[in-house]
Design goal:
single chain, alpha+beta, Hypothetical protein af1432, Beta Polymerase, domain 2, Ubiquitin-like (UB roll), 4-stranded mixed beta sheet, 26 helices, 20 strands, 42% helix, elongated
């Protein structure tokens, strides 16, 4: 990949961010194009025209079989012979350049073979069947996938549905999108031959769709150059100004980055840590963003230090030495090794202060992390081949399947639920416009990647999908919180779920949903249940409030009516029966009743402390007995020792017994002990004892009892 655009009409130089094993001469694609027209080469050697591709490929795969590339080149060159690009170059120079970009990034042989052939089916007489017969099913599939994406950028009316198809193709094999991104990069490099209005249209689609996708696939090398090319076309004045800033800075005699680089090398050498310390210049858009944020730029703002080591542990060793021997800026520290980004990115970020007060940012990563940071999914090679030890070390959590990254799986899931292509398109663009993601932790140790500004509603749908309709509340960092609570990077979120499969979301949740998964799931339910969302919202809000409320403290408030109560037949005609919340009686408890104001009879268990109090003040009992209804509502208190995943295990035990959680309260731990209070709806009161046994069997739980609330006498 050259340091500037290959076409003289391109907008200007672009800083190269692709790591190289050794320097190579600049590639003259015009010369290679002319060489390609001289005819086929001998079968026993590689054509000179793709020698640079072979060299770049062998740098990543020393033992690669180059025969498929030779055969692909022969077919592509002969098929495109006579075709010319608008720039005046032979057309074959385009697939050649695209393949070279991918080879430099470390794409495996199958991807490079498909890249050389990616325009043959669209623009020549070659058929997909011929490609499959000659190169196999994998190459055929990739060429077919790229061919289907060729018209995605043209025509606003077709854009939404075409892009939906593109996502489906990408979800089946991320190598399709890798080829598409490299194809777009070369086209952007040579965009200067087109009319300004067409340049602008292509640049806008690149900005709105392809650059965010490159970010999500982790292909930073493509993303940064695409950003600079789009910047030059859509904002030429700002681009020129930024270019002047970079040129002026490069001519300065004093360079704080160079000085700190020497300091860091000395520190690491003295600590006997083998590391490569490099200055990594910022690309144009990055410099522009820093200038807008900080105003006047200083020397340290034009780049960052990159420290490359061999092992993960060495990264932390480097960090310790830098923070010990230099003056760290603690607020700038971020650990993306322990908590990787959603797009494969891993690094330690820190900053140290220069003697003149300038702050120098430092990135610390292994060589493998650097390869993945630059090339993303491309660096993973063939996603269907057994992973190497290095790839297994690089993959974890939602990135464990390189054929379908976690964010892409979510995207494909909700695009199927979008009611129409326009809704899908607008929601997608809104999602891709999010330039920052946060990571929140689940109680079970897992993580959720969410856009900046996401709420507990978004977390619920990210974790549970449409089952999040049953969410009744949340705890954020151990404290009860509303579902509208905005989450911050690093928060721990525990979602409280009801067990009713017919639970319904609230229309108001749409005001707090920022992710496509949440918005589309809620909208889909509302569209399927017109008129019910408002009622559902009121019920959900009441349930959430119940999850946040402490147990009641007097008999005027605890007599909670139930939707499907086990109701006693009362010896007082016309009386309304209410179950006392202080002791939550259920069949076959022995019960008694007391008349209260309004013609209501409250029913208590006979051993309830409130019964003795009311008898003591002369209150008359009312005879009550259980009817035939077996469903009941009961409040249970679980006493436990604190441990990870306890709440999840308790709620699972409750669900397995068929009980529905109406509300839940978890009190702050006291001396490593935790008190959980659940109000539960049981389908059969006879299951109560079995439910309590199941809860006691959860490790860490040492007691489960019926709630006994303090009650004042009448």
């Amino acid at each position: 990949m050259s340091a500037e655009a290959t076409n003289p009409a391109s907008p200007g130089p672009v800083i190269n961010t692709v790591p190289r094993r050794k320097a190579r001469p600049r590639i003259d694609l015009r010369r290679l194009g002319r060489a390609a027209l001289l005819g086929p080469t001998a079968r026993d050697r590689l054509p000179d025209a793709i020698g640079h591709v072979a060299e770049a490929h062998r740098a990543h795969y020393p033992d690669a079989d180059l025969e498929p590339l030779r055969r692909a080149w022969v077919l592509a060159e002969s098929s495109h012979r006579g075709q010319m690009r608008k720039s005046g170059e032979p057309y074959i120079t385009h697939p050649l350049a695209v393949t070279l970009i991918l080879a430099e990034l470390g794409a495996e042989t199958t991807t490079l073979t498909a890249s050389l052939l990616h325009d043959t089916v669209e623009d020549t007489e070659v058929t997909l069947d011929q490609v499959g017969e000659e190169f196999g099913a994998e190459v055929r599939y990739l060429v077919d996938g790229v061919t289907k994406l060729e018209k995605v950028d043209y025509g606003a009316a077709a854009e939404p549905e075409t892009f939906r198809k593109m996502l489906v193709a990408t979800g089946s094999d991320v190598r399709v999108m890798s080829i598409k991104l490299a194809d777009r990069l070369h086209n952007m490099r040579t965009l200067g031959v087109m009319r300004p209005e067409k340049q602008a249209r292509i640049a806008k689609v690149t900005r709105d769709v392809l650059i965010p996708l490159a970010e999500r696939l982790g292909v930073q090398a493509l993303k940064t150059e695409l950003e600079d090319l789009v910047f030059a076309i859509l904002h030429p004045e700002e681009y020129d100004h930024t270019r002047e800033l970079i040129v002026d800075n490069s001519s300065r005699a004093d360079d704080p980055l160079a000085e700190v680089t020497d300091e860091v090398r000395t520190v690491l050498r003295d600590a006997d840590i083998q590391a490569e310390v490099l200055i990594r210049p910022r690309h144009f858009v990055s410099v522009h963003r820093v200038a807008r944020k900080r105003g006047r730029l200083r020397g340290a703002d034009f780049g960052r230090l990159l420290v490359l080591v061999n092992e993960d542990a060495d990264c932390y060793g480097v960090l310790g030495e830098l923070h010990t021997c230099l003056k760290p800026v603690v607020s700038e520290f971020k650990d993306f090794i322990a908590v990787p980004k959603f797009n494969l990115y891993q690094s330690l970020h820190t900053a140290v202060a220069h003697t003149d007060g300038q702050v120098v940012e430092v990135l610390i990563r292994t060589h493998q992390m650097h390869k993945v940071a630059e090339a993303g999914v491309i660096a993973l090679g063939n996603p269907y081949a057994p992973p190497s030890e290095e790839q297994q070390a690089a993959n974890d959590g939602e990135r464990a399947d390189p054929t379908r990254p976690g964010w892409l799986s979510r995207l494909l899931d909700w695009q199927e639920g979008a009611p129409d292509p326009d809704t899908f398109w607008s929601t997608l663009r809104e999602d891709l416009a999010q330039d920052r993601e946060i990571t929140v932790f689940r109680p079970d140790g897992g993580t959720l990647g969410l856009p900046d500004g996401a709420t507990c509603v978004d977390a619920a749908y990210a974790q549970y999908g449409e089952d999040a309709h049953a969410c009744i509340g949340a705890r954020v960092n151990g404290r009860l919180a509303t579902l509208s609570t905005v989450l911050k990077d690093g928060d721990t979120v525990q979602l409280l779920m009801g067990q009713d499969p017919a639970s319904e979301p609230s229309r108001e949740w749409l005001e707090h949903a920022h992710t496509p998964a949440a918005r589309i799931a809620i909208q889909r339910w509302i569209a399927a249940h017109p008129g019910r969302a408002d009622e559902a919202g009121a019920e959900a809000d009441e349930a959430a409030q119940g999850a946040r409320s402490a147990p009641p403290t007097s008999e005027d408030t605890p007599d909670t009516p139930t939707e499907r109560p086990a109701t006693p037949v009362v010896d007082q005609p016309g009386a309304t029966v209410r179950l006392a919340g202080c002791c939550t009686p259920v069949p076959p408890d022995e019960v008694t009743g007391f008349s209260v104001r309004g013609g209501v009879v409250t029913v208590h268990r006979v051993e309830c402390a409130a019964v003795a109090q009311m008898k003591g003040v002369g209150r008359a009992e009312v005879g009550v007995r259980w009817g035939d209804t077996t469903e009941c509502r009961v409040t249970l208190v679980a006493e436990s020792f604190g441990r990870p995943h306890l709440l999840a295990d308790l709620t699972e035990a409750i669900a397995l017994e068929g009980a529905e959680i109406v509300s839940a309260t978890v009190e702050p731990p006291t001396q490593q002990r935790v008190r959980h209070t659940y109000t539960l709806q049981l389908p059969d009161a006879a299951h109560l004892l079995a439910l309590m046994r199941a809860m006691r069997n959860v490790p860490g739980v040492y007691d489960v009892s019926r709630a006994q609330h303090h009650t004042t006498a009448f």
